[in-house]
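hiii so um. not sure if this is the right channel but i have a protein structure encoded as tokens and i wanna go backwards to a sequence. like what aa goes where. can anyone help
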């Protein structure tokens, strides 16, 4: 397994497989195509931890915070093995995102692809439940 070394390796790999919707120095995004003509927006960011390590944050919006009860979100986090729910603004609205943080030392291109697909598919199923089938993100 060849690990990716940095965010530029991730950018190069994903740009070879997907059109990038956003391509900034520390953030990229793409739309993952899903069955049934659905798509899920995925965001990747290079972030620095408190101890100075660089990690890759992968996230995808699920639903507006107003549509999800906090207790259900916390129970989901407890049961989940990959991904956690967090809140961030999307176009000025508080949105629940499904996220995963991974250190570069343990990431291969295949693992990035696997985690993005898993996050995208799970977030899309959650979005369908919350929005009664509408594809919002």
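sure thing!! here u go:
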């Amino acid at each position: 397994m060849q690990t990716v070394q940095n965010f530029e390796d991730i950018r190069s790999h994903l740009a070879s497989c997907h059109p990038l919707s956003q391509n900034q120095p520390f953030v990229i995004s793409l739309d993952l195509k899903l069955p049934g003509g659905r798509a899920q927006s995925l965001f990747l960011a290079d972030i620095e931890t408190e101890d100075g390590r660089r990690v890759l944050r992968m996230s995808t919006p699920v639903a507006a915070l107003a549509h999800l009860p906090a207790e259900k979100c916390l129970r989901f986090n407890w049961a989940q093995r990959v991904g956690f729910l967090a809140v961030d603004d999307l176009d000025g609205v508080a949105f629940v995102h499904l996220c995963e943080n991974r250190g570069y030392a343990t990431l291969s291109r295949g693992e990035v692809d696997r985690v993005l697909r898993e996050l995208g598919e799970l977030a899309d199923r959650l979005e369908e439940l919350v929005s009664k089938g509408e594809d919002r993100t």
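oh and The chain has a mean pLDDT of 89.
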